[in-house]
Model the fold of this input.
Amino acid sequence: MADLTTDFLGIKSPNPFWLASAPPTDKEYNVRRAFEAGWGGVVWKTLGSEGPPVVNVNGPRYGVIHGADRRVLGLNNIELITDRDLQTNLDEITRVKKDWPDRAMIVSIMVPCEEQAWKDILPKVEATGADGIELNFGCPHGMSERGMGAAVGQVPEYIEMVTRWCKQYYSKPVIVKLTPNITDVRKPAEAARRGGADAVSLINTINSIVSVDLDTMSPHPSIDGKGTHGGYCGPAVKPIALSMVSEIARAPATHGMPISGIGGITTWRDAAEYITMGCGNVQVCTAAMTYGFKVVQEMISGLSRWMDEKGHTSIDDFRGAAIPNTTDWQYLNLNYVAKAKIDQDACISCGRCYAACEDTSHQAIAMSADRTFSVIDDECVACNLCVEVCPVENCITMVPMQAGTVDPRTGREVQAKPADWTTHPNNPGAVAAE
Ligand SMILES: Cc1cc2nc3c(=O)[nH]c(=O)nc-3n(C[C@H](O)[C@H](O)[C@H](O)COP(=O)(O)O)c2cc1C
Ligand code: SF4
Ligand code: SF4
Done:
C-alpha cells in the first residue's frame, strides 16, 4: 500500500493533509478531535500578541456562493485571528503536541511589525514544543487595517524583515503564508526566501463581497445594516491558488522552495493536483468546515488508492510531476489540431452546445429539424466551450487530428513537428525555425 507519510521541513506527519489555520484549529477540543479523525497535522488558529485578545463581531461572519444543489462553492468570512487569550492557546498547544507527537503542530502568528513584538512571542511559542511556525501575512480584513496580515504580505520588504527576525529568535522551521491579494505572488515568495523562510504556504483568503441585499442595500454578511469585504475561500478559489503555486514552483528565484498548498482542497484529487505542482503537503479549511473532520478519511483512502493504481509508493514519487508540463502560452504547440465530436448515443438533445457555439463561439454545431446536433469540422476551432457547457459528461470529446491529414477549416496539412509562437511567421519577434 502507498506510503502517505510526509516529511515537510523535517516535520513528519502520517499523511499530507493538515488543517489550515482557522476555526477548525482554534482550540484543544477541535484539534484533538481532528487528530482522532486522522488529520496529519494542524496549523493552529493565528495567535496575536499578549494582552487583550482581538474582538470579533457578534453577528454573522460568513457568506456563501452556493451551487445549484446548495453545495458550498465559495465561502467568505469576516473573522479575525484567535479571540482567545494567548496563554490559554499556548497551554493547549503544549498539551496536544505532547499527546500527539506523530502529528504536525504548527503555530500561526500575527503580531505587529515591530521586532520586539516578535522577540516577545517567539520564545513562548518555542516552549510549547510545536514543530514550527507559520507567519500569517495574509488576513485580508480587520488586522490589515491595523498594519498586520495582508498589510505586511503586500510589502515584500516587510516580509523579508519579519522573516529574518523569526529566523533569529526561533529555532524551528518558519513557513511564510502568502496573501493572494497582490499582483505578482512571486515577489513576496522571493522576499520570504531572502529572509530565510524554510517554506511558503498559499493561499490565504481573497478579498471578497459575496452579495448585496437588495432590500437593505447592505453587503452580506450584514452587521446591523453594514457589511465589509471578507476573505474568500473554498472550491471557487482553487484555480487561483493552484496557478499561484505553479508560478512559485516554476520561477527560477523560488524554484525548489518547499510549498504547503492551500485553497479549495475538498477531495483527494485536489490534493494530488497541488502535489503535482510541487507542494510537499496541503492544508484544508473550508472542506472541514462544510463536511466535518471525517472528510479527511475519504481524502486519505482516495489518495492511497490512486497512488496504488499509478504505482506511486510515496508522495515524492509524483511531487512536482506537472511542473515541466506547465509553461507559458508562447510555448504551446500551435501545430496541434483537434475537433469536437458528439456521441449521439449520450446526447440528450438539450441544445446547450448549439447555443454556446452558435451565439458566442464559431457557429460550428449544426442542429437538424429533429434536434440532432453535429459538429461542422470546417468551422470548429476546437475551443472546448461545447465540452464544458454540455451537461452530459464525456458526451462531447476533443479528438486530435492525425499528422498528414488536412484540417478542413484551414485547408492546411496537420504537421507532426511541434511549432510555437516563438517561431510563428505572424510573430514579428519570431526566431527563425530550424
Ligand atoms: C473563518 C475563517 C477563518 C480563518 N482564519 C485564519 C487565520 O486565523 N489565520 C490564517 O492564516 N488563515 C485563516 N483563514 C484562511 C485559511 O487558513 C485558508 O488559508 C483559506 O481558508 C483557504 O483554504 P480553504 O479554501 O481550504 O478554506 C481563515 C479562513 C476562514 C474560512
Ligand atoms: S469546440 Fe468550440 S468551435 Fe468546436 S464545436 Fe465546440 S464550441 Fe464550437
Ligand atoms: S450540450 Fe451535450 S447533451 Fe446537449 S445537445 Fe449538445 S451534445 Fe447533446
In short: The pocket of iron/sulfur cluster (ligand 3) is lined by residues 342, 347-353, 373, 390, 392, 395-396 (CB under 6 Å). The chain has a mean pLDDT of 96. The longest strand covers residues 41-47. DSSP finds twelve helices and 20 strands in the chain.
